[in-house]
Amino acid sequence: MSFVQLYNEKELLASVSLGDEKAFHVLYYHYSPRIYSNLLKLVKSADLAQELLQQVFVNTWLRHEAIDPEKSFRSYLFTTANNLVIDFYRKVKRDKVLMDKLLAAAQEYYLHTEEWLHEKETMHLIQAAINDLPPQRKIIFTLCKLENRTYKEVSELLGISPATVNSQIVKATSTIQKKLMANRDVAGILLAYLILR
């Protein structure tokens, strides 16, 4: 039984919301290793992962009065961490070498992380975005991006030009990416990049 389980987590969270630093430290030592592990897989830098980890908990403490003991603190922390990684990605988006390393790390994250629920939720978001596309665009996107058919194959199958296929793919990709960005879920951004590129 963990230290957090020994104490009631809801009671700890209630104490934290009232400004109890000791209760916050208990939660920090319980959750920080797992958060750090996933940050490290995403950014591939021990120093950066540690920096982001500290920022996760600093941000959480600064908003401690808003903590709801009835909601999952684990999910709250992972969401905070995801948002910080998104901000990091935005800062380095022009650095292709670093971005390639981060995307490679993201693939590993999906293979090994315990947070499979986040991936499932992201897949549902992607599928919902695809379903919202106009009928022809949805078919073209599905054939090209999910079934890995070439533009030529799709153009011949549907009786349209390769240029039309390309145009529809560009529009579909833009629509899906915007919806995932609006969700502000780093898993969504990473998985979308891997699927849509």
Brief overview:
One of its GO terms (molecular function) is sigma factor activity. The chain is mainly α and 197 residues long. It has helices spanning 3-6, 9-17, 21-43, 46-62, 73-92, 96-112, 116-131, 135-146, 151-158, 162-183, 186-196.
Please, could you describe this protein's structure?
By secondary structure, this protein is mainly alpha-helical. It has two domains: 1-94, RNA polymerase sigma factor, region 2, helix turn helix motif (Rna Polymerase Sigma Factor, Chain: A, Orthogonal Bundle); 115-197, Orthogonal Bundle (Arc Repressor Mutant, subunit A). It has eleven helices and no strands. The chain has helices at 3-6, 9-17, 21-43, 46-62, 73-92, 96-112, 116-131, 135-146, 151-158, 162-183, 186-196. Helix 2 (9-17) crosses helix 3, helix 7 (116-131) crosses helix 11 and helix 8 (135-146) packs across helix 10. The longest helix is centred in the N-terminal third of the chain and has 23 residues, at 21-43. The protein is elongated, with a radius of gyration of 20 Å. The termini are far apart. Mean pLDDT is 78; it is low at 110-117 and 193-197. This is RNA polymerase sigma-70 factor, ECF subfamily. Residues 27-94 form the RNA polymerase sigma-70 region domain. Keywords: Sigma factor, Transcription, Transcription regulation. InterPro entries: RNA_pol_sigma-70-like, RNA_pol_sigma-70_dom, RNA_pol_sigma70_r2, RNA_pol_sigma70_r4_t2, RNA_pol_sigma_r2, RNA_pol_sigma_r3/r4-like, WH-like_DNA-bd_sf. GO terms for molecular function: DNA binding; sigma factor activity.
